[in-house]
Design goal:
heterotrimer, A alpha/beta, B alpha/beta, C alpha+beta, B: alpha/beta, Globin-like, Transcription Regulator spoIIAA, C: alpha+beta, binds adenosine-5'-diphosphate, binds magnesium ion
Chain lengths: 122, 301, 143
């Protein structure tokens, strides 16, 4: 896999899984978006799970990158599910007046994969 | 350590406050041999003092414990002359402070005992340094590192107090926002009483925390017990719904009376993003459906 | 003794440069460290560090760099953290619109200023066209 950025993207069956564990500064964010889209193009994955349980803070800049990446994936026919957002992160974003648009969400990676049909229903 | 906010930067800034420079540490290493010679006297003298006062004696239960503490104290004593004041050193000091806090030794005893300790160091160690100017300088350095240590211990006391205050507050919040587990992965919050913006924020936080704790798929918020639902309250409920969605669960709003329905529509609040139902029982049915369960009549046997 | 009403008092103050994008992270991490040490809970910590991110990013993106000053306060009952973000950039021409939210000259979300304002107890802006901008925020522990 020819990744441009430091954030790995894994393949789980027909679905992609990526865990964001570092700060999405400008260069990293751009590389991340490009990596996601390239990977979708290459694999034709029908869904992508983006795990942000490692982020203890998400400002509007990062939130926008996440929402945008989801929207781009959707345009390519791939469902994007954001998982693992921490309570304090969600409360902060909502208080700031940003609810991240129409992006799909799930509690954790398991639920996210299940939502995309990557795991048996439970 | 994280709790106390101690990192390299804090270490450097604190050392600067106490004017604890590398020269001070070197000066202390230089008199280590003298210090070692007097270690037993200082430590024994210190415990004699502690045992002589009822306020500190009550912490010293038996001889074996005193012997053990003396060994710890000797190690501590030598560390003062190790010439090191880095993060591991601080970590060690935090541990010492935490132990004293845990056994309930009030800071006044800690500080008073430390003053005595310093007096012993002066009498036994510093006065044994032949050169007067050198002795004076060494004493200044000793006072710096001792004051530095005390500041860390006091911070440990404060952090522990803050933590217990936080626990009390959490307990109070839990009582005013009782989130109940209805079924696996389904929660219920019956809201009773007026909701101002401070309470609304607490409700949101509690709901989010409980959803994560219980890995809930949905939470039912029943507002039948809320006397006034105005734009502000509606807005808070919408925000909570949005936040619940962000962490990957759903909100079902129940207990909406005709009056409330009228208000919400007249106020022009858009609640299309919410599941809303009149009765709690309907909410529970919908909630069960969301977690893949159903209420069915009992088979006649 | 009851509670004594103190003037709020500055316990510490430090200034950090915001010259590169990484500095945004440094400021934010430092803010989190201070908040945690002073007993801010997870929600208050997230609010404070997010505010720090937003304002530090504004200094860097819109103000062309500047400084952040982080202060620990006490009013005798509670701890507070005050942050001052300063730059010598172009200033904010239409402050009212910038504070309304949803307005951005950088084609971003435009929720940084308006959102930050909702996350903290005190919020003040001093901006002059051609001279620069200073945003001061304060957040207090809840007890
Ligand atoms: N430090 C600053 N210097 C100059 N202009 C600023 C500064 N901070 C904010 N602004 C202006 O206010 C607008 C709104 O800021 P903000 O709410 O943070 O949204 P965003 O950064 O997404 O544009 C910015 O687009 C910019 O025009
Ligand atoms: Mg901004």
């Amino acid at each position: 896999m020819s990744r441009k950025g430091p954030i790995p993207i894994l393949r789980v069956g027909n679905v992609l899984l990526t865990t964001i564990h570092i700060d999405l500064q400008d260069t990293i964010a751009a590389a991340f978006q490009e990596d996601v889209l390239t990977e979708i193009e290459k694999t034709g994955a029908h869904g992508i799970v983006v795990d942000i349980s490692g982020l203890d803070e998400v400002d509007t800049h990062v939130a926008r990158i996440l929402a945008e990446t989801g929207a781009m994936a959707r345009l390519m026919g791939t469902r994007a599910v954001l998982v693992g957002m921490r309570p304090e992160v969600a409360a902060t974003l909502v208080r700031m007046g940003y609810a991240m648009g129409a992006i799909e969400t799930a509690l954790d990676v398991d639920d996210g994969l299940r939502l995309l049909g990557g795991r048996p229903k439970g | 350590m994280a709790r106390l906010g101690f990192d390299e930067r804090e270490l450097q800034s604190r050392r600067a406050i106490f004017e604890l420079h590398d020269e001070d540490l070197q000066r202390l290493t230089a008199i280590r041999a003298i210090a070692e010679r007097h270690m037993a006297e200082v430590v024994d003298g210190f415990y004699a003092l502690l045992l002589g006062h009822p306020g500190t004696r009550r912490f010293l239960t038996d001889d074996a414990q005193v012997a053990r503490l003396k060994r710890t104290q000797s190690a501590y004593f030598l560390q003062l002359f190790d010439g090191r004041c880095d993060l591991p050193y601080v970590e060690n000091r935090i541990r010492v402070g935490a132990v004293h806090e845990r056994i309930g030794l009030a800071p006044k005893w800690y500080i008073a005992a430390y003053r005595r300790y310093l007096a012993l160091l002066l009498e036994r160690v510093v006065l044994d340094i032949p050169d007067r100017a050198e002795a004076l300088a060494a004493y200044q350095s000793l006072k710096k590192i001792v004051a530095f240590d005390m500041s860390i211990a006091i911070d440990t006391y404060i952090a522990a107090n803050l933590e217990s205050l936080g626990r009390h507050q959490a307990a109070i919040r839990e009582l005013s926002t009782p989130v109940i587990r209805v079924h696996e992965r389904l929660l219920l919050l019956p809201l009773v009483g007026a909701i101002d913006s401070q309470r609304a924020q607490q409700v949101m936080e509690m709901v989010l925390v409980r959803v994560i704790e219980e890995k809930a798929r949905a939470i039912i918020i029943d507002i039948a017990g809320v006397p006034v639902v105005d734009t502000k309250v509606a807005d808070h409920l919408l925000k909570t719904t949005a936040a619940v969605k962000l962490i990957g669960a759903q909100t079902i709003l129940t207990g909406i009376s005709a009056q409330v329905a009228r208000t919400i529509v007249q106020l022009g609040v858009d609640i299309s993003s919410m599941h809303t139902l009149a009765r709690l029982s309907e909410g529970i049915e919908l909630g069960l459906e969301l977690v893949g369960k159903r209420i069915a009549p009992k088979e006649p046997s | 003794m009851g509670s004594l009403a103190f003037e709020s008092q500055t316990l510490s103050s430090e200034t950090m440069a915001i010259d590169r994008e990484e500095d945004i992270v440094h400021v934010r991490k430092r803010a989190r460290m201070l908040a945690q040490a002073r007993g801010f809970d997870a929600f208050a910590c997230a609010a404070l560090t997010t505010a720090a991110s937003e304002l530090a990013r504004n200094v860097w993106v819109h103000g062309g760099g500047g400084q952040a000053t982080l202060e620990e306060l006490s009013d005798g009952n509670r701890f507070g953290i005050r942050m001052v973000f300063r730059d010598q950039g172009p200033g904010i021409a239409d402050l009212e619109r910038a504070l309304q939210g949803g307005y951005s000259t950088a084609r971003s979300l435009g929720l940084g200023l308006s959102g930050t304002r909702r996350l903290v107890e005190d919020f003040a802006i001093d901006t002059r066209p051609g001279e620069g901008t200073r945003v001061t925020i304060t957040k207090w522990t809840r007890f």
